Amino acid sequence: MSRGFRPDIEGLRGLAVAAVLLWHAGESLVPGGYVGVDVFFVISGFLITGLLVAELDSTGRIDLLAFYARRSRRLLPAAGVVLLATLVLGWLCLPATRWSGTAGDVIAAAAYVVNWRLADHAGDYLAQDEAPSILQHYWSLAVEEQFYLIWPVLLVLVGVLAARRRRSPARWLGLRSGHARPAARTPRGWLVAALAAVGLPSLLWSAHLTTAMPERAYFVTTTRLWELAVGGALALGVAWLPRLPRRLAAVIGWAGLAAIGAALVGFDHETPFPGWAAAVPVLGAAMVIGAGPAAGRAGPERLLDTGVLRALGLISYSLYLWHWPLLVAARARFGDLSALGGLAVVAMSVVPAALTYRFVENPLRNRRHLVRVPARALRLGALSTGVPVLVAVVLLTTVPSGTGPVPGATPGAAALRPFPRDDPAGAPTDRVAVVFPDPVAAARDVPASYARSCHAGTTGTLLTCEFGDPAGRVTVAVAGDSHVAQWLPAIEPIAQELGWRAHMYTKSSCPVLDAEIVKPSAQQVASCAEWNRELRRLLLGPARPDVLITSSARYRVRRADGAASGADDDVIVDALRRTWQAFVDAGVRVVVLRDTPYPEQHIPDCAAAHRTQLTRCSFPRSAALKGTGEAQEAAAREMRGVTLVDLNDAICPTPRCAAVIGGVLIYRDKSHLTASYAASLRPRLRTALVDALGDGPAGP
Predict the structure, then answer these.
(1) Which of 172, 404, 535, 666 has fewest C-beta within 10 Å?
(2) pTM of the full structure
């Protein structure tokens, strides 16, 4: 491969980083801007493979030590600088609730495994309401680094196999000194086979996982390797690419740029990605790169070889590193930014990016003593990685533990009068004497069902927990999603007091509903449907309870025509009625706990950031209740055997909902009650259940 400078590739790199930056600044600006990362992957696969194969052809071997030294001095110092700066930004701008996660992300990013951490986090239902990581953008760098670990070694193995009779494997590994004689070109068929062995399984897995678990598919390395392999395959054909007819090459190049443009404006957050859709920007980038040498100025080079795009391409690595931490810090400090505000932050990120390129990235990449002695470059890389990790570990030891009063020492809902609506004790106030749980620890204030491993995840099977009186005459089933599970701290002691034999059947993102819910993951949809079938077989058969207590968050369901319903329209109402009626017909009393208000902001984050201005964490009752439980209320109306219990006046008594009542933090995230506040609602829930069941199985 020619090592000559390619202005079109530099401009393409600038276009890719601009797309990502604009998308991060405001999704409406470039709805599919995330495909810029996929363009980067193709460029990286092309350049790295070209350099490695050129070395293999000219020297007969690949010097792995020199290769990793080049990667080390090129990438690690700038990444380390930004990691350290991000720790400072996080400490200054992020609420204390996010310090521990940020420190963990720094460690994972420094080790270039943060994409796997983010994938696990994306599939964690309890973490879904958390704000994006300040280092989320490092996922793509992790994917590339993992490719850099795999691909050169695979090429070495191919080279060893190709010439195993002509020289010892030790020389191929670059472990012997001395100048190797030029070797015959490694057969391209073997190299293509190696790329296919990496790329084809990755493409198929990407298509599968994007359908089954899209939130995980976006981050993991295995769904992206094929994109780098496409760039690698392109590099193997670099010798014949300049022979393409000029007009044909120009058409191919412009068509490739058009494909990238179509993805930028035609894709959005609802496009299943990466999967098959990623082929559009990936093949588009490959067409632009492949056609460039033959098309010349007749192709996209005339557009890509402009001052702005080439300047962005020049500092694209540092700019990519800097822009996201600054955006996250600004949003944490000033709230949601408009698209214009996001653009302003992105524009400002050019300054530290240019300084990092000028004083860190470029000088160290070309420093003579680092080039001459690869071990020195590797030591520099280790230092660039180790220092942020050490600082992150220190930060982890200083993160507030969130300790405070023991549960029960604060009254919570007990501070409100019996009829709490408009009770001033529940009104927002800037300062309170105590907050329990401390906002830093709020994410851990969850029902015991999670610790008991009897709450099914989004793709889990039917699980159960038994509580209350094992010998009780009355059997109660508590079933639904996490919005009924949040009531366990109140229901469990009630079951003990009333002598119920109770079982809990809960599953994340899955209501008790005889309808297909609309979810981004086909696996989640299928899992929820199967869970509902198993639940109905159990509760309408051998384990039929006397009472079913249920609740759920708001969902959209699939209409008969395949379209998605609204959150509270007749389709959902009818589905709820149909579901509950089946239990009533089987002789089961149904109690529906009306869904709780939605703050639509992360309350612990807000409370941690504004401990003396808690009114900034309040929110309007009317908005919080809009679409919340309205379908439940409509479905329960005039249904015999079904009772709706509404305790929302004890959660939000006044026109503006408070973050803290009676010294207890009400929410652990954007929609779930803390276990402590749910427990403080126990007397009110007990009274409501006794009233609802009347002379039935509960008894007073």
Answers:
(1) 404
(2) 0.88
